[in-house]
Amino acid sequence: MIENILNGKEQSKIVLIQDTIEESGYPLATCCLKSLSNRFDQIHLLCFDISPQTFKKVLPEETLSHCTFHDFSSDPLGWLENGHVSVKSTDFIHYLQKHPTLRNSCSQGQQIAVMLCSITNLLIHQSPSYTCRLLHRLVDTYTSPFSGVTVGQVVCMVHSDLHGEHLLSQLAYVATSVITLQNNSTSNTFMNCHVLHHRTTGKILQINEQFRLSPTYELKDLMVAKPAAVSVTDEHQPDPTANLTFNLNLTDKEKADRSRQVLPHIKIQNLPQESKTSCEEGEDTIALVYLRKTRNYTFCDTEDGLRIRTQ
């Protein structure tokens, strides 16, 4: 599934990569960047917490020729006053609309892609609603800052261990594909991930996959991840009824005493002597039920038994 999403066989407008401090998502983002360069005319990479030099050192010139880097990592909060861009206050839709190199580099009818690495700084310094709205406006035809071109895909990465589940669920609602990297304790060469993909038909697919990245950042040895084996130990479970101060079951004597108990509405003393003996021995017999005279009753003797109706 992850391979089909990266190479475009599965259409996905917004791809969200969730990583942690144990499983970094930057190698997978580099692999995704190479895949985007094969499918789109231009890629605009917005670097919020990592320098563009990190990608330039490992990517080939063929891929870099399709990339336009926007560096917001050197002074994200605008403390050095080297520019007017700040992660805390800049509207990046307006920034992309007014950027001179962006307007000159995009030609009419081109298909471009946008990558954000990562949106954690946006979520921390701006509201989550702004971040979700930014992702939606990038792919929307009417609100996209790229006039005259089509934004085919937006890929963003978020450090999931720095945010709560409620915020991550908001991002997952906006995204059409969510790739969650998982810790692989059994192997150091393979990466595990959980993929949640929404197809355009409305069908939702979920799968756990395992893959390996080559030194040139290409997917290798992709397979379905096997669930971890859970060892079940046959331990003796303590009996919760062992130390009770009371009995859960009645003895034969207690059962006999219960059968001889006279209920308040049954007067066993009015029965014949043989019926009394049967009741005391616990046998099924007929008892007299005394009714109050505050109502008029109609008795219907049927095959199923005695029915009493009030009038």
TrEMBL record:
UniProt keyword annotations, A-Z: Cytoplasm, Nucleus, tRNA processing
Protein family (similarity comment): Belongs to the ELP5 family.
One cellular component term from this protein's GO annotations in UniProt: nucleus
Pfam families: Elong_Iki1 (PF10483)
Predominant localisation class: cytoplasm
Name by which UniProt lists this protein: Elongator complex protein 5
Biological processes per GO annotation: tRNA wobble uridine modification
GO MF annotations in UniProt: tRNA binding
Pathway the protein contributes to: tRNA modification; 5-methoxycarbonylmethyl-2-thiouridine-tRNA biosynthesis
Localization in the cell: Cytoplasm; Nucleus
